[in-house]
Amino acid sequence: MRAVLCENEDLEGLSVRDVPEPIPGPGQVLVEVGRAAIDFVDTLIIRGRYQITIPRPFVPGNNLAGVVVGGGPDCARFSVGDRVHGMAFVGAFAERVVVPESQLRPTPAGLTSDIACLTGAPYRTAYDSIVSKGKLRPGEDLVVLGASGAVGSAAVLIGKALGARVIACASTQDKLDFCSQLGADEAVLYTRPDYKDALKTVCKDGADVVLDMVGGDFSEPALRATGYGGRFVVVGFAAGGPARIPLNLILLKGSSVVGYEIADFERREARQAAQNRDALEEMLGSAMLTPPITGRFDLDHAPEAIRLVAGRDKLGATILDLR
């Protein structure tokens, strides 16, 4: 079968090769991939900058939608021909991938493969972070740092659907314009010198929830712009590293800072995660959410697509169409 092969940490070294088809083991199924979403986290894994290191060579790719074509011993949840979607962590940028049954969900009839592959990490992360960690309530101010990317654009859409006032923060005006098209109520450049003051101006009583995918020097000003009892949710560090936050800010504002990592959340809070998945798929299937798919590539052009996402200039979601 054909797949993207990662042999080193150089994105320029990615290639599409013929590789052996994987064989499912106990509790695993073999999925023919129809669509796969390319996320910024995939680029971190490829470059060896993620918390978990994968031995090379390997096939990258996490979020997928496809059809079950085989199963290993003890498989009970799915049968050959079932439409499924979920997360493989690695392996999805290929014609076929082996995935544990526990990491897949049946794809409802009303959910297209395009949308189903996006219900993986980006939309799950946004929904879990906003609802379960941020405890967002209708009418509250939601600040999204890194609002133009896959997770950020999902957060803008979800926040609006849940009745929040959404303040999108991004690094360029083009990105902010994109967020405004998605429905963001306010847009703020986090690269401007008066970024903190600009946030305080648009959030007159302070932000209620901040969703931070950026980190670095941009986190502390956003925390300072929260109101009393604000919830600051740490999701990622696209700017290059975690922020150092003075704890006195937490004390003075009565704030809470919580972290979110998708694998731990699904393992440790499995019941809440399952409820969130049902709610999210209902929102997507009913067109309450319309993900902005702004890039579509075939497998031959997957290395180019991955490099595009890694550059952080890409807006919205990028998917591979393998069928």
Give the helix/strand layout.
Elements: E1 2-5, E2 15-18, E3 28-38, H1 40-46, E4 63-71, E5 83-87, E6 96-100, E7 104-106, H2 113-118, H3 121-133, E8 141-145, H4 150-161, E9 165-170, H5 173-182, E10 186-189, H6 195-202, E11 207-212, H7 219-224, E12 226-234, H8 247-253, E13 256-259, H9 262-268, H10 270-285, E14 293-297, H11 302-310, E15 317-321
Parallel strand pairs: 8-9, 8-11, 9-10, 11-12, 12-13, 14-15
Antiparallel strand pairs: 1-2, 3-4, 3-6, 3-15, 4-5, 5-7
Helix pairs in contact: 1-11, 3-4, 3-10, 9-10
Task: Explain briefly what this protein structure is.
The chain has 323 residues and is α/β, with parallel strands linked by helices.
Could you please describe the fold and organization of this structure?
The chain has two domains: 2-118 and 292-321, Medium-chain alcohol dehydrogenases, catalytic domain (Quinone Oxidoreductase, Chain A, domain 1); 122-264, 3-Layer(aba) Sandwich (Rossmann fold). It has eleven helices and 15 strands. It has helices spanning 40-46, 113-118, 121-133, 150-161, 173-182, 195-202, 219-224, 247-253, 262-268, 270-285, 302-310; strands spanning 2-5, 15-18, 28-38, 63-71, 83-87, 96-100, 104-106, 141-145, 165-170, 186-189, 207-212, 226-234, 256-259, 293-297, 317-321. The longest helix is centred in the last third of the chain and has 16 residues, at 270-285. It starts with a strand and ends with a strand. Pfam families: ADH_N, ADH_zinc_N. It comes from Nocardia xishanensis. This is NADPH:quinone oxidoreductase family protein.
